[in-house]
Amino acid sequence: MQIYLDYSATTPQRPEVTAQLSTMATQQWGNPSSLHAWGERAALVLEEARMQVASLINAANPNTLLFTSGGTEADNLAIFGITRHYTTPQHLIISSVEHSAVSEPANLLEQWGWEVTRLPVNAQGRVNPLELKAAIQPNTVLISIIYGQSEVGTLQPIEELARIARSHGVLFHTDAVQVAGRLPLDVQRLGVDLLSLSSHKLYGPQGVGALYVREGVELVPLLSGGGQEGGKRSGTQAVPSIAGFGVAAALAGQELATELPRLRELRDRLFDHLADTPHLTPTGDRLHRLPHHVSFCLTNPQGITGKTLVRQMNLAGIGISAGSACHSGQLKPSPILKAMGYPDEQALAGIRFSLGKPTTPEDIDWTAIVFKQVLQRIMPQLVSVKS
């Protein structure tokens, strides 16, 4: 029996998406910039996908969506597309629990002389809006706060944070990669200026994403070339992948009303199963939380790391993650858990279960049994499995 519980890392392509990719490869493979019939057919598919993705986030104008190679490029385009307007260094605000696609560009800007404020978070990983308000300076030009944290599942109060930014005339970006397709997203209600998305987190193809850019916000392009995507992202668009992204987004929007409560129920079921496990503590905010996300760390790991637990669960046929997939190959304390106040030993012992469309209650029950057995085997002095 094999159970995949790493849907925050990536999701399998839906059959409907695969069918769309096949159609594109065999029938609609033209260059959307070409003026002949082949190009026109591809251009129509491209714009249909743009409308589908825009609908998922309630963007009134589909042309506010720019297609990218994924969430990382979308984040980089948001940050550098704004900061490159300035010939002298200014001030940027991020949270201390950002994905590396935001924190690394911020580090680079800091090397170039920019001032970067990294907002602290509480023990649950939440930003205090009052601390954002206090951090804004006259030369603050951009605030970037992640919506749903991939490692610990915490949701930030994005609507309130964006309202503070707007009241100070500062642009606001959020990485919503983990949220799209799992919670309702409405860029008009949120009041954000820029928002990043990724296809492969919602059962679309890997290698494609999007950046929402509110009308009136100007970006300096990262790529120079043929002027595609309204001149903001040059390069021939990956039309088959974008078309698949569109199909995945449309289906996610249609199924959200039923999938959201189902995932929440499964999430809470796993939390409940493991609640009595000694020396295992939940991480992140239980109330303000991604609906598919369960995470823990060992409070007394005695040298056991999250990677050890991942390997042991993999031997049992269950796929989980040691925090963010982007960091799972590095044996060093999680910067996210460190920012939340966990000591190094515990920050090395964090794990994540993330649930998806194929996940069943039986999967959850079996995973809990196996995980307790793994803990009993590798930490017999700490864990006793209840019958």
Per CATH, which architecture of the largest domain? 3-Layer(aba) Sandwich
Q: Strands of the biggest beta sheet: in what spatial order?
A: 2-8-7-6-5-3-4
Query: How is the main sheet built?
Result: 7 strands, mixed
- Tally of strands: 12
Shape: globular
SSE class: alpha/beta
Radius of gyration: 21 Å
CATH topology of the largest domain: Aspartate Aminotransferase, domain 2
Give the class-level CATH name of the largest domain.
Answer: Alpha Beta
Overall pLDDT metric = 94
Can you tell me the number of structural domains?
2
Order of helices and strands: EHHEHEHEHEHEHEEHEEHEHHEH
Proportion of helical residues: 25-40%
Short recap of the structure:
This protein is an alpha/beta fold and 387 residues long. It is built from 12 helices and 12 strands.
Could you explain the architecture of this structure?
With 387 residues, the protein is α/β, with parallel strands linked by helices. It has 2 domains: 3-9 and 257-378, Aspartate Aminotransferase, domain 1 (Alpha-Beta Complex); 15-251, 3-Layer(aba) Sandwich (Aspartate Aminotransferase, domain 2), CATH 3.40.640.10. It contains 12 helices and 12 strands. α8 (239-273) packs across α12 (361-378). The model is unreliable at 324-328 and 383-387 (pLDDT under 50).
